[in-house]
Design brief:
mainly beta, NE0471 N-terminal domain-like, three-stranded antiparallel beta sheet, 6 strands, about 10% helix, globular
Amino acid sequence: MPMTPATTPIRLNLRKDEQLEIEWQDGHRCVYPIGYLRRMCPCAACRDEMTGAALLDPASVPLSVAPTRIWSVGNYALGITFSDGHGSGIYSFPALRRMEGMGFEDV
């Protein structure tokens, strides 16, 4: 999928309240709670590769989950390692933008 202003981040900020703020090139900003991102992990251990159905029990994610590392995956995604030891999910920028309005604060 080609990058567009709506799927190109220009600023990332891990806030003190354990939320990841992304400012997109089109000027929009989204705030993603870290626990939400962990529960939405797209990796094969957390989601069925064929159907996309959730395999992860959301109740198994500690309320205190926090990021221990966030890094760039090429020019198209973020990788996140969480304090519960999970770190195999790759969050593409288009997927992050599609998550907008799905149960988290939008700014």
